[in-house]
Design goal:
By secondary structure, the protein is an alpha+beta fold. It contains 18 helices and 19 strands. A six-stranded antiparallel beta barrel has the order 1-4-3-2-5-6. The longest helix is centred in the last third of the chain and has 27 residues.
Length: about 525
Amino acid sequence: MPTSLATATLTARVERGDLAALPVGELLQAVVVKVEGGAATLLVQGREFVIRPSEQMQPGTVWLLRRPLGESGQQVEYLASSAPSSFPGPPGHAARPITSTNRAETSPVAPQLSGNTLPLPPALTAMVSTHSARPQLVEVQEQVSPQTYRITWFGQTILARSEQPLLPQHQHLVQFELRPDGLWLLRPAETAQSPRLLAAALLSQLPPADLAPALADLHQTLMGRTLAASFPTVLEGAAAEHVGPSADTTLRLLRDVQAALESFWPSELRPLTAQQLRQLVENGGLLYEAHLSSALSASPPPTDPRSASLGAAGDAPGPPIQALAPNLEHAAARHPLVSNDLKGSLLRLIQSPSGGGEPTLQAAVLPALQSIVSLQAANILAGHQGTSYWLQVPFPDGSAWRTLYMAVQPEYPFSVEDPAPRNKSSFSSTMQRFHILIHAPLDTLGNAWIDITLHGDRLHAVLYFEREVALQQALALQGELHQMLQDSDFTQIGIEFRSAADLPARHRQHAEAMRQVRPPSLHLVDWEV
């Protein structure tokens, strides 16, 4: 029902926000989360609106706002000192009085958030209650006031409190708790399930990884075509005279990212060599947190992506994600394992004052980071379940880069309770047996799948092609491919070419799971929580 406002109301134009989503004529709570350059960012029913008020607003204050009746364009009314004596708090709790010692003042009578109820719309209250039994992944946008943060969760913007400090622009795994004064974020208890919970939470919110086009766009940006248009002085090296040492820092960070990427990225549109593929696994970001731990503990570097870690269960910054505390990362940053890692160099760039504020850089960096993190999460689940780990490999397809999806399963015994191989030390690197499934969704050849068994210097491969013309082309090159493999020191080689109609259903399902980055073990985590 429309609510009438007192005469001491003000109007303001909405500069950003979906005003049509608000009910017409209803009095709504609006929390000021930011004031910058005369514009105020308000949080209303979980949505953000930017208005330009005629009266100064203070962050952390609560106003009453209404979308006027009739054709008001992008105008809203907001209530100043003549507000009603109370307005509703969260459902089920008493109304909170609004008082003032000076009735002549024109600023709103609204206490700071840190000591009062945080408005939470009924729909969000119900949604939070439904998910309060399980840890949730939230992204902290900024700290509004002491212990009060603006967060996003499943596309919703919420104000919440936390007794534990939370890093803005980072993700955290938290437990929801609804209290009379609003939503509180608690750190989940650390258990053996924590890494899997974090990985599952990430996979439920991150878009599916597609590494090749993300890296191709990043490489183009770093080469200067897009970046030079918006950041020319840094690339030309002339900024130091004008903007101080920050330009030198940004240039160094850009070069670090470029060096890490080009350690495996081909200089032309061609398949990765064996050495580049090795560098992709070791320096492409999948092992970044493990590299940090290794650098700090002086332990041998890891080689299996399933040994990667996303850090403590209650502190999972991202995307991008940074698993260790900043001081620990800084201490290890000069270690070669860390300084040469793509994910680490991307994090240092995007978290720098200049890099983090550059839209062109963010547009290039974030998709690459999200793809890396998504693969890390999938491989953490693989490590706990003893299943194959997943890689995404850039592959040329005409004039563009496409992602090859690869599942690698070392065939020595694993235990679900202990993800480390029981007898790994008893296998030499030349005698390990691997099962590898590759899915290549290419424009030039159509879908192709390769089922490989590799045992030391013996290789057997079955290639499946969706298109008949691609199958015939492969058959024509059979002798050339066989000779190439012999030149690669394989002593026993078996190759078969088949139609995709013969592809086992389990391989097709596994390939689709790789494309969606949804491991078969993901649903097990949901049931176990």
